[in-house]
Write a structure and sequence with these properties.
- The complex is a heterotrimer of chains A (274), B (324) and C (262).
- Chain A contains 13 helices and 2 strands.
- With 274 residues, chain A is mainly α.
- Chain A has one domain.
- Chain A has a two-stranded antiparallel ribbon with strand order 1-2.
- In chain A, helix 3 runs antiparallel to helix 4.
- Chain A is globular and about 65 Å long.
- The relative contact order of chain A is 0.13.
- Chain B has 2 domains: 216 residues, P-loop containing nucleotide triphosphate hydrolases (Rossmann fold, 3-Layer(aba) Sandwich), CATH 3.40.50; 57 residues, Alpha-Beta Plaits (2-Layer Sandwich), CATH 3.30.70.
- Chain B is globular and about 75 Å long.
- In chain B, the strands form 3 sheets. Chain B has a 6-stranded mixed β-sheet with strand order 5-6-7-3-8-9, with helices on both faces. Chain B has a 4-stranded antiparallel β-sheet with strand order 11-12-10-13, covered by helices on one side.
- Chain B is built from 11 helices and 13 strands.
- In chain B, strand 8 and strand 9 form a beta hairpin.
- Chain B has 324 residues and is an alpha/beta fold.
- Chain C has one domain.
- Helices cover 77% and strands 0% of the residues of chain C.
- Chain C has 11 helices and no strands.
- In chain C, helix 2 packs across helix 3, helix 3 runs antiparallel to helix 6 and helix 3 packs antiparallel against helix 10.
- The longest helix of chain C has 35 residues.
- Classes of the chains: A mainly alpha (274), B alpha/beta (324), C mainly alpha (262).
- Chains in contact: A-B, A-C.
């Protein structure tokens, strides 16, 4: 039993060290990080402008969402979008061919820990850099937003849930690179599906019924729409808790799939080399 | 019990084959032709704990493939390997904690941070208790003389300096077995010497088993008492370095300086010339006679009989192999 | 003038021959274009499931804007971006000399030598979407409208080119301009919608700072018969000014470059 406790403590130690390393590294690149963040703003601003225009044309609100609420949705969107950035599935091909993978395989630690810890640390830097950006956006677009304590707490948890779910599923996608280099078609279909089914394009309630139904079978909403709505949509306590539990469920599903896929991927790699 | 025990270890790869031309390209879309390549062909050897063994062979001989199998990166196609009692292919955590694989120019350290920070990360990965980690780290830093380099971001270091700190990072967990794949590749002579001295010292202090591959004979000559020569996936020689020349060298080299700069083709094959000095290659049996003739017929100012450089020996060995 | 055209044709041929080797690129580009188009159409359909017009633009008219956006995007990715990216790289690496020692005009050379023919798929896609959109919009399109459209399309492309040239020339002074390409991608997405939907300040930036309005909205207005002659005059005037400025700025950059590298 104490061996288990020791292992757990070592793992926590690794995450702390890994996150600290990432913070130190990424802080050096704060200018590049800002550039990227600013470039990324075009997308939500466009959506925001378009949907508030539609709302105003319909008399001030659309499906119960006012212009101010749209503004809130898309401003919080920018943070959630940042939390969604994880190791790109395109990066696996590079990892395999560059030889980085050998280095990862030689360590007595599952490489998933390495990515999770590193990107988590990066997120900390990103959250700090994001705050002034959010301030400016709020001044420009006047969001309507007044969450209570429970909602803020749920949001704080939900953004990390989103991070974990997306980490798992993008790792899963990346595993395809072990079998073929022609992966971009699959990746693109995935990303388009995600765009439409996650709440990234619009709040899901604006999507036709059948699309919402379809989205229920996918993890996408839990990586994007749910965290935003936790803060913005005035959900009640029960919905929040259910949502967080579903996030946990999807994380476990993703994790299970990743562990299985990884075993096959390593088997393939060690049969074929690079 | 041997630290490394290899029996009939084999690795075959399936390599896609394709001819040039549009028609062949289209055909290959439908039906892929594959060829089997034996990178490593039923090799066997055993290495005792604490030995430093050199693995010599030209490119494509199977050295790196063997190292990768021994470190668990590749599954053998046949035969078996045991390192420290473990089967490497199983990649057990306990096993990975006792070995290290250092490859020529692979970066395992964080690019933007001082090496010291990467060492901290390795400490966490290998779960090293602090009271063991710190003295080991400091010992390695001192042995490799990188004290002033470890606080600089790794990207600011030269290739040789980077190699040294990478080695520190690779040994922090005090592995019992070191797999070194071309560790001095691309480094200047001073750096090569420093790294060789380090490996020898590390082996002496910690009794680690070292399996080292290299192109540079100087690495092998400086470090390894035993050498395994591999070519086309098979072992050609496994034994003391001294015996290598004995076994394979068919020639000796006579290095001579004559007064009047005469042409010396009659005495043997002229392989090199440097100012007044000429190097002649003669078959081993002829050495005494050629030497006597030179001394008698020419005005010899200086003469030495040398063993051919090991490189030539190796080249001959490989040439022989190819010819068979 | 004919010299420039001849040069352009030569580069195009070489580029095309080079890329036909990479058949895979065509297929991937087709797939990518199809996916992007489908997404764009879905978004429009979604918007119009909730409303009948957007700031005075109908569904068909917005489809026209989408078509022009794709078309212009294709033009940018076929010819403008590859050249400007290469220019920035060469400034950064100091290898611009090769281009400068050729007997042709430097600006012409650095602007025409790179061609990504497979992106041409976007040109076709955009044209098709535009064509379909115009059938939905209906109305009468005479040869004058078609001429105006073609002219404004060219003027718009020339403005985007000039903008890019100014950006790339900036590399002569601030070496780290690589982020620029990514930023542009993001900003260009704003062109998917007519510039009139954006709040006033943004509208001004998207007209005079990054000429998205002239590149996409204005030609779309021409195609759908919403054009006012004042816009045409403004486009021509601003276009000429921007082009002249870009050329002058580029020459300044060259002077600095040859002065700096001894």
């Amino acid at each position: 039993m104490s061996a288990q406790a020791g292992a757990l403590r070592s793992l926590v130690d690794f995450y702390a060290t890994g996150m600290r390393t990432a913070v130190q590294s990424q802080f050096q690149y704060r200018v590049a990080n800002y550039f990227w963040m600013v470039g990324m703003l075009a997308e939500p601003v466009i959506y925001l402008v378009v949907w508030t225009t539609v709302a105003r044309a319909q008399g001030g609100e659309l499906n119960g969402i006012t212009a101010g609420q749209f503004a809130a949705y898309y401003i919080v969107w920018t943070l959630v979008r940042n939390m969604n950035i994880v190791f790109t599935p395109y990066g696996w091909e590079w990892r395999i061919r560059d030889g980085q993978l050998s280095g990862l395989l030689l360590r007595p630690l599952h490489p998933l820990h390495y990515d999770l810890a590193y990107f988590a640390g990066w997120k900390v830097v990103v959250i700090v850099l994001w705050l002034p950006v959010a301030g400016i956006l709020a001044l420009a677009f006047r969001p309507e937003l007044s969450p209570n304590v429970a909602q803020v707490a749920a949001f704080a948890l939900a953004i990390w849930g989103a991070y974990l779910i997306r980490s798992m599923f993008l790792w899963l996608l990346g595993m395809l690179s072990f079998w073929t280099t022609r992966v971009s078609a699959v990746f693109e279909v995935f990303f388009v599906g995600e765009l439409l089914l996650s709440g990234r394009l619009v709040p899901m309630q604006l999507m036709p019924e059948w699309v919402q139904g379809l989205a229920g079978f996918t993890p996408f909403y839990w990586t994007f729409g749910f965290p935003i709505e936790a803060l913005v949509a005035d959900l009640d306590g029960r919905t929040l808790v259910e949502g967080l539990l579903l996030q946990a469920l999807w994380t476990l599903i993703g994790l299970g799939l990743v562990l299985v896929a990884w075993r096959y991927a390593v088997r393939r790699y060690s049969a074929v080399g690079n | 019990m041997p630290a490394i025990d290899v029996r009939d270890l084999t690795k075959t790869f399936l390599v896609p084959e394709r001819e040039a031309g549009l028609l062949a390209a289209m055909r290959s879309l439908v039906r892929r032709r594959q060829r089997e390549v034996r990178a490593v062909d039923a090799i066997s050897f055993a290495i005792e704990p604490g030995e430093v063994v050199g693995f010599l062979g030209p490119n494509g001989a199977g050295k790196t493939t063997t190292l990768k199998m021994l470190s668990g990166l590749l599954h053998p196609s046949g035969g078996e390997a045991r390192v420290l009692g473990h089967v490497p292919a199983r990649r057990e955590r306990e096993y990975l904690r006792q070995i290290t694989l250092v490859m020529g120019n692979r970066n395992q350290l964080q690019w933007d941070l001082p090496a010291l920070d990467s060492f901290e990360l390795n400490r966490a990965i290998y779960r090293l208790p602090r009271d063991g980690f710190v003295p080991m780290r400091d010992e390695l830093i001192e042995l490799l003389d990188v004290g002033d380099l470890v606080r600089k971001p790794v990207r600011n270091l030269s290739l040789g300096e980077r190699m040294k700190v990478e080695i520190v990072g690779a040994l922090l967990h005090r592995p019992a077995v070191l797999f070194l794949d071309e560790p001095t590749l691309g480094l200047d002579v001073t750096m090569q010497k420093r790294i060789r001295a380090f490996v020898a010292e590390y082996n002496r202090r910690h009794g680690a088993t070292v399996l080292l591959t290299s192109h540079y004979m100087a690495d092998v000559e400086a470090l390894c008492r035993r050498v395994i020569v591999i070519h086309h996936g098979t072992i050609l020689f496994d034994g003391p370095l001294a015996r290598l020349a004995e076994r394979f060298a068919a020639h000796k080299t006579i290095s001579v300086v004559v007064a009047n700069g005469a042409v010396l083709d009659a005495y043997g094959e002229v392989v090199n010339r440097d100012g007044d000095r000429v190097w002649l290659r003669v078959p081993k049996e002829e050495t005494a006679r050629a030497t006597a003739r030179l001394l008698a017929e020419q005005e010899v100012l200086d003469l030495t009989v040398e063993d051919p450089p090991i490189e030539d020996v190796i080249d001959t060995v490989f040439a022989q192999e190819r010819a068979e | 003038m004919t010299g420039a055209l001849r040069l352009a044709w030569l580069f195009f041929r070489v580029g095309a021959l080079n890329e036909l080797q990479y058949r895979v690129n065509f297929v991937m580009q087709l797939f990518h274009s199809a996916l992007a188009l489908a997404t764009g159409l879905v978004v429009l359909a979604l918007v119009f499931s909730h409303t009948t017009e957007l700031r005075g633009w109908s569904h068909g008219e917005l489809l026209a804007v989408l078509g022009v956006h794709i078309l212009m995007g294709g033009a940018i990715r076929v010819a403008i971006q590859p050249n400007m990216n290469r220019l920035m790289e060469e400034i950064r690496d100091g290898t611009l000399d090769y281009a400068l020692t050729k007997p042709e005009d430097a600006q012409l050379l650095v602007s025409l030598r790179e061609v990504r023919t497979w992106q041409g798929v976007e040109l076709v896609t955009g044209a098709v979407v535009l064509g379909y959109a115009l059938t939905r919009v209906g109305g009468e399109a005479g040869p004058l409208d078609a001429a105006a459209f073609a002219l404004l399309l060219l003027v718009g492309a020339a403005m985007i080119y000039s903008f890019w040239l100014v950006l790339a020339t900036g590399a002569f002074w601030l070496v780290r301009m690589d982020q620029a390409a990514e930023l542009f991608e993001g900003v260009y997405q704003t062109g998917r919608w007519p510039v009139g939907v954006y709040p006033p300040l943004l509208r001004v930036w998207l007209t005079f700072l990054v000429p998205i309005a002239f590149a996409v909205t204005v030609p779309a207005e021409a195609a759908t018969g919403r054009l006012e002659w004042t816009t045409v005059v403004l486009a021509l005037a601003f276009g000429a000014a921007l082009f002249a400025f870009a050329r002058w700025f580029f020459r300044q950059g060259l002077k600095r470059y040859s002065g700096a590298s001894a």
